[in-house]
Amino acid sequence: MEPGSGPRRVTIVDVAAHARVSTTAVSKVMRNAYGVSPAMRERVTAAIAELGYRPRAAARGMRGRTYTIGVLLPDIRNPFFPDIVDGITGHLHDSEYQVMIGTGGRGPGDGAGDAESELRVVDAMVDRGMDGMVLVAPAAGQKRLDEVAGGVPVVVIGRHMRSARHDTVVDDDARGAALVVDHLTGLGHRRIAHIDQREPDRGRAETMPNAVRTRGYRDAMRAHGLEAEIDVVSTGYTEDGGYRGAKWLLERTIRPTAIFAGADIVAMGVLTAVAEAGLRVPHDISVAGYDNTSFAALGPIGLTSVDQAGRQIGADAARLLVQRMADTGRASTFITTSPNLVVRRTTATPPA
Amino acid sequence: MEPGSGPRRVTIVDVAAHARVSTTAVSKVMRNAYGVSPAMRERVTAAIAELGYRPRAAARGMRGRTYTIGVLLPDIRNPFFPDIVDGITGHLHDSEYQVMIGTGGRGPGDGAGDAESELRVVDAMVDRGMDGMVLVAPAAGQKRLDEVAGGVPVVVIGRHMRSARHDTVVDDDARGAALVVDHLTGLGHRRIAHIDQREPDRGRAETMPNAVRTRGYRDAMRAHGLEAEIDVVSTGYTEDGGYRGAKWLLERTIRPTAIFAGADIVAMGVLTAVAEAGLRVPHDISVAGYDNTSFAALGPIGLTSVDQAGRQIGADAARLLVQRMADTGRASTFITTSPNLVVRRTTATPPA
DNA sequence: TTGAAAGCGCTAACAC
DNA sequence: GTGTTAGCGCTTTCAA
Which residues belong to any copy of the HTH lacI-type domain (chains A, B) (predicted)? Predict the structure, then answer.
């Protein structure tokens, strides 16, 4: 029991006394460690059950592990991240590890990827002795990530960079963006605009998923001979970012016939702006997203989107993390997953 | 540094040696405790900065606090919960506390409110020495909650029950449900169905938000002389729950003219099912939700919903928690917030 | 005001 | 196979 009153919490000493064995024995049984006779194990197990003993993770953490895995999410509102979390917790469900989620302490309206806030959360997780961490699209630089990964097993999701210190799971974002552009040009679109997330740091630009999607968009446009039509608005991967970006685009004298939003959550804002402008989707303008979140599939939405199998990505990350926690020095793994385009009802031939 | 190699982590001993003071002094400075001269404070502060010292939360937790607050969410997919989390983190932003979020390890498709999984998470938080916890719509029984709250400061959000051990912040769910029914009957609806979350435990039924909304719906229907039209389908507060519930309702020989979903996330599933059935909203059928999440306001959705100010609720909870952590023995507070109906475009007069 | 020393609950060496 | 003994990095009495 912490500061509260109540009865003192059962400790390993109580269990040892109750079972008339040493605390070492209890500790070993708890950890399924080597060197306990079946008889001893049984007595200890019984005592544990009888007293309702649960070890304190903090105390364990002082010497061994805390059995806690930290997951850093850039933004809890983006419906794509729960998919990843599901994959992680699903993989860890039968293990002794507990997942704790941390997000930047940002209010709504602020852009995702607040680097300072993220730094605090990562530090906080390290300070709390997490046995391992999954960092989803972290904004930190390579150097900082390597630093963190040097101290605790880390798997990074979404950053396009290899590191010897941590494992990486990433979607082929350039390919995903190309899928969208190919699809839209195939329908006859030429003026295809893209809304992405502003990337303040030039250094890490090449490795952030948003930046790679934008690059994929540019390259694909060029490949279709549409270099002159390239049109990127940078706001943020939030609903509001999509709303503001679309407002901006719709005010153009020659407005785009299609908007490719860098994330489904962005597309949501786009749809709102489009509706407010009195335009109909896809009759007047086509809209596509990225992530294929559950909201994209909603009846009244039916958003064309790029599927990147968040659950699978999360599960892969968890698997790699477990391996790395077991063998800290192992060589790092780099997994790339392939995106798929899911065509729904927000994309069609452009207005005549 | 945990298991990893790398340089040993800076400890309080290093700082003390570097500043040529005792570890006690460093500890006091870290905690802004009473009894340090300005000169001493300055030297210690300098040493801390120079060495980049950050205390290990686990070690602090052995004697004092961990500076960590646990937030239990029943479901990370429901877009209402980020509002609450924003309120909590917003209030705690400038404090020394860090927020860690835990959710049941459920895969998609399972209903929310998995009691066993929730139990594990709450235990895990207690075991990890959380200084305080905010439990959002926990499924646990009164007894269990009091037990937990006896050991660590707790604020419960969403349960309709007073407890001497923990504070409570709750929306007037019965009133919210009545607002919807009043609105729909005012439009001329009589066959108003409700989709709620199955409540397996009779004991706690009266106190769960879903159950109270259902009761509010029933009472309001009766008040309008529509007792015979009461029609409740129990699935879960998930998108899939809404989808299945609506499928079921739409198969009725005499189908309802309006569906009141117990949560926005449920309404999302309803909208999908309605669209699949080839029906138009609100022309053929009206739909209303609860929570007024950001998705309700989306252009293509425009869902009529009950606003319960999640951000405010979260902020209130955080405020109460901070007070309780400062004074464990204080009398408990019970806050009820008043819901508001936000009418959008999914509700209209019933078909002739 | 300052610091020495005793733990917090657990795990890891090391004896037996 | 079992128990004894040191700590892990902090906070907290309690003397000085």
Answer: 10-64
Q: Which residues contact B157 (CB under 8 A, 6 or more apart)?
A: B84, B134, B135, B136, B137, B168, B169, B170, B313, B314, B317
Across the interface, whether the CB atoms of A294 and B76 are under 8 A apart is answered no
* Residues whose C-beta lies under 7 Å from strand C: A 8-9, 11-13, 23-24, 26-27, 30-31, 33, 53, 55-56, 59-60, 62-64; B 21-25, 34-37, 39-40, 62-63
pLDDT at A300: 87
pLDDT of residue B4: 42
User: Are B90 and A107 within 8 A, CB to CB?
Assistant: yes
The number of residues making up chain A comes to: 352
**How high is the pLDDT of residue A113?**
53
CB contact under 8 Å between A131 and B2, yes or no, is: yes
D5 C1' to B78 CA distance, Å: 52
How far, CA to CA in Å, does A105 sit from each of A51, A102, A108, A118, B86? 39, 9, 10, 8, 7
Cβ burial B32-60 (10 Å sphere, 16+ → b, else e): eeeebeeebeebbeebbeeeebebbbbbb
Residue A345: predicted pLDDT: 96
| Tokens describing residue B274 | 């309605």
- Confidence (pLDDT) at B50: 96
Q: How far apart are CA A330 and CA A320, in angstroms?
A: 10
Cis amide prior to A200 (ω within 30 degrees)? no
- Contact (CB, 8 A) for A258 and A191: yes
* Residue recorded with tokens 């080597």: A34
Tell me the C-alpha distance between B76 and B72, whole Å.
10
Residue at token pair 């709620």: B196
Kindly state the average pLDDT of the residues B266-272. 96
Do B42 and B72 lie in a common domain? no
Residue matched to tokens 């029950």: B161
What tokens appear for B192 in the block? Answer: 């108003």
Tell me the CATH number at B86. 3.40.50.2300
The answer for residues whose C-beta is within 8 angstroms of residue A73's C-beta and 6 or more apart is A81, A85, A101, A102, A103, A136
pTM of the predicted model, to two decimals?
A: 0.94
Please check whether residue B237 lies inside any domain of the structure. yes
A3 Cβ contacts chain D strand, under 7 Å: no
When CB atoms are compared, the residue of B58, B100, B271 closest to A300 is B271
Torsion of the alpha carbons at B338, B339, B341 and B344, rounded to the nearest 10? 140
The pLDDT value recorded for residue B7 is: 67
**Higher-confidence position of B328 and B167:** B167
The helix or strand, by DSSP H or E, that contains position B187, with its residue range, turns out to be helix B173-187
Number of domains in chain A: 3
Q: Range of A24's domain?
A: 12-55
In a shared domain, residues B292 and B192: yes
- A102 SS3 class: strand
> How do A304-307 and A340-342 pair as beta strands?
antiparallel
Dihedral pair phi/psi, residue A324, rounded to 5°: -65, -35
Pair of tokens at residue A303: 């958003």
Q: Using an 8 Å Cβ cutoff, are B168 and B134 in contact?
A: no
Residue ranges in chain A modelled with pLDDT below 70: 1-7, 104-113
| Domain assignment of residue B344, yes or no | no
